[in-house]
Amino acid sequence: QVQLVESGGGLVQPGGSLRLSCAASGFTLDYWAIGWFRQAPGKEREGVSCISTTDGSTYYADSVKGRFTISRDNAKNTVYLQMNSLKPEDTAVYYCAAIPWVRAGVPSHTDEYDYWGQGTQVTVSS
Q1: Edge-to-edge strands, sheet with 78-83
Q2: Tell me, what's the pLDDT at 116?
Q3: At 81, which helix (H) or strand (E)?
């Protein structure tokens, strides 16, 4: 069955970097959309960055553009989120999500994804 396992979270100082990994099993990345979402305490889950393996389309939330980069490694069946110049407001639990996807573009809303990982905590604090 489809499984997504996130890793790479932790505590980092403002301005620092982290790379999150989403290891997928039960399917190969071809013709799927993979998204990174985050949820801070008391806030709704929001889309951070998503990628379509069908046409390579990507999505970035305005708050992370220029700082975060999403990428994939087909050989490892893993999607990464490189996070640079981290800010305290990036503190949240980060989730990986997936949905089979054969359309153009890439979905970016939580209700468009069917499969979810357990999440990894990212804390940005001095």
Answers
A1: 3-7, 18-25, 78-83, 68-73
A2: 98
A3: strand 78-83
Q: What is the pLDDT of residue 73?
A: 94
Residue 110 has phi, psi (to 5 degrees) of -55, -35
CB atoms within 10 A of CB 89: 10
Residue 50, amino acid:
C
Tell me the C-alpha distance between 62 and 60, whole Å: 6
**With bands split at pLDDT 50, 70 and 90, how would you rate the model's confidence at 124?**
very high
- How much of the chain exceeds pLDDT 90, in percent? 98
Query: Which pLDDT does position 97 carry in this prediction?
Result: 98
Of 99, 92, 24, the residue nearest 64 (C-alpha): 92
As a whole number of angstroms, the distance between CA 59 and CA 48 comes to: 8
